[in-house]
TrEMBL record:
InterPro entries: MlaB-like_STAS, STAS_dom, STAS_dom_sf
Pfam family membership, one: STAS_2
Protein name (database record): STAS domain-containing protein
Sequence intervals crossing the membrane: none
Source species, domain of life: Bacteria
Limits of the STAS domain: 22-120
Length: 120
């Protein structure tokens, strides 16, 4: 049995979705991506909504963006939600730019990665 979620000490109805924050490590690269994938899949399996917390100074490469894009597709088909605590910045934003993800970005992708802001 899952515990009843609370908001400011007031119990919420049992059907209220609770988002699980998931803090990611500072290394988001090919060397660590398998462990991050396992942790992300485990979190998605047990929760309907995950909020990813990416450190501002995280080192990232294309494998991280590929993992998150695959996780977004999986979450969508499984009726789950995946979001970022804050918009992509630092090296994650650079990887998105170098990989061409920021060019002609769909509105849904812009909401996910950039929280709807545009990149100059």
């Amino acid at each position: 049995m899952r515990p009843t979620p609370f908001c400011l000490g007031v119990p919420l109805p049992s059907n209220t979705p609770v988002s699980l924050p998931l803090s990611l490590p500072g290394q988001l690269t090919i060397r660590t991506i398998a462990a991050i994938q396992e942790e992300l899949l485990s979190a998605l399996a047990g929760n309907g909504s995950i909020i990813l917390d990416i450190p501002e100074d995280a080192q990232a490469d294309l494998s991280f963006v590929q993992l998150i894009e695959a996780a977004r597709i999986y979450a969508g088909t499984a009726g789950k939600q995946l979001s970022l605590k804050q918009p992509a910045s630092g090296q994650v934003l650079e990887v998105l730019d170098r990989g061409g993800f920021l060019q002609d970005m769909a509105a849904e992708d812009q909401r996910f990665w950039l929280h709807e802001r545009t990149v100059q």
